[in-house]
Write a structure and sequence with these properties.
six-stranded mixed β-sheet, 2 domains, 13 helices, 33% helix, Aminopeptidase
């Protein structure tokens, strides 16, 4: 196929453009380099032959880079590539072997913050479209790019963007911003994502920290929070909040068939993270079902008192805990917040303040949708073999795309599952970037023909 041969012969340009993207910091949590990176992405799109523009919602909101190219041969079908140009903070800097925004290449790996998540993935989509344009002077179907700058802080405004530009963004299918590749180089085709509810619980007991000898009289807010948090779930991970699972449907027979076929090497996973057992001592099918269809209640951080070197006998005046709940389909974040509040009140913790940071519903694409077979066929041809996955264990703003654009979403990409995303020394593998770029060419071709 002449298009995929173009990818082979232009890998140096792909690598160079990726390095250029990495070297432009774009940390949404700090609003660092966001505008500059949006303009750089627009420049790369234009260089690749894609008409592009920067869309804005309101002041203070990261812009979306929008790209579009219409097909001459098949103007009746539109495929969207959704990606993001923002990245996670690079701290702690001292754990990076090379500077986090250096984009240094070492053999088959390109290192840097965003190398995989999500600048590496983004460049594969752009270069696939470029390959079609340069070799055929056309694309197999209409192609749209929606590239946001707030994904790493929760995509707070993506729903507003989708509503405002609903007609402009209309499409028949969405290729999501990433996709994992397992340790045997098999890409995992994700048909969904879990939702997320991120909250902060806090207690203020006294106006200032006190000498710990006063703990006989002054209540310790840290203990108060520990007691409250302990009522939220049991040791097996089951959430104990009343009606938390009320609307949830069990996994379908077809979902279970897919899950049973999906390989999961427990020993490799445990070795990677240095752990001996899973929550609730799950094994085999139960472990896989939990990854795909299990809700979670996770303590993301606990802050109170003194945690520095040495000893300090202090009684803290306040305490807070940050908790993220992973949600599964039919769990409404707004309903779940109300249930959490009711739970704390009924259990005698009405003094605990609740701050909601973010809520995102879960989304899934039906495995029998024609889009799934089109993507799988292309992925098998590019990689040799692929794996269907009912739902990713992580979260992204897939729900509003499904709900507002009424389009199926599928995640597929070049992210090696242990590529250290969100961690120091994040890297992308050059071989996977090449295969994924070719895969995107084949997906567009399949999508345009069917």
């Amino acid at each position: 196929m002449i298009v995929t041969k173009y990818v082979d012969s232009h890998m140096n340009e792909l690598i160079s453009d990726l390095q250029m993207l990495i070297r432009q910091p774009s940390v949404s949590a700090k609003n660092e380099g966001i505008e500059e990176c949006a303009k750089l992405v627009q420049k790369i799109l234009k260089k690749s032959g894609v008409k592009s523009e920067i869309l804005r919602l309101k002041k203070g909101v990261a812009p979306i880079v929008y790209g579009e190219i219409k097909s001459k041969q098949n103007p009746g079908k539109t495929l969207m590539f959704y990606n993001h140009y923002d990245v996670q903070p690079a701290e702690p800097f001292d754990l990076w072997v090379d500077p986090p925004f250096s984009g240094v290449r070492k053999g088959n790996k390109i290192f840097g913050r965003g190398a995989t998540d999500d600048k590496g993935e983004l460049i594969t989509r752009i270069k696939a479209v470029e390959a079609c344009i340069k070799t055929t002077n056309d694309v197999p179907c209409n192609v749209k790019f929606v590239i946001e700058g707030e994904e790493e802080t929760g995509s707070a405004h993506i729903e507003d963007y989708l509503k405002k530009y609903q007609k402009k963004f209309s499409c028949d299918g969405v290729i999501w911003e990433f996709g994992y590749v397992d340790t045997k180089n098999r890409p995992i085709i994700g048909l969904g994502m879990k939702g997320l509810l991120f909250v902060e619980l806090s207690v203020k007991e006294s106006i200032r920290d006190a000498h710990s000898s006063l703990a006989v009289l002054i209540k310790n807010p840290a203990w108060r929070l520990i007691e409250a948090v302990n009522t939220l779930r049991n040791s097996d991970g089951k959430i104990l909040i009343k009606d938390w699972y009320k609307e949830v449907s069990p996994l379908s027979k077809n979902d279970l068939k897919i899950i049973q076929k999906e390989p999961f090497d427990e020993n490799v996973f445990k070795k990677e993270f240095g752990i001996k057992s899973f929550v609730g001592n799950k094994k085999g099918l139960e472990a896989k079902k939990a990854m795909i269809g299990g809700a979670t209640c996770n303590i993301a951080g606990f802050v109170s008192g003194y945690a520095g070197d040495g000893a300090k006998t202090v009684l803290p005046g306040s305490a807070l805990v940050k908790i993220d709940f992973r949600l599964i389909p039919k769990m409404d974040p707004k309903k779940q917040v109300l249930r959490l509040k009711k739970h704390l009140k009924l259990n005698g913790f009405s003094d605990i303040h609740i701050k909601v940071f973010h809520g995102e519903a879960a989304a899934r694409t039906n495995s029998s949708h024609p889009f799934v077979s089109q993507v799988k066929d292309a992925t098998d041809k590019s990689f040799g073999k692929s794996i269907l996955n009912v739902s990713n264990a992580g979260t992204g703003p897939m729900y509003p795309f499904v709900e507002i654009l009424k389009s199926p979403c599928i995640s597929i990409g070049s992210t090696y599952m242990f590529s250290r995303i969100h961690s120091p020394n994040e890297f992308a593998r050059v071989d996977l970037l090449k295969k994924t770029t070719k895969c995107m060419c084949l997906i567009m071709d399949n999508f345009g023909k069917n």
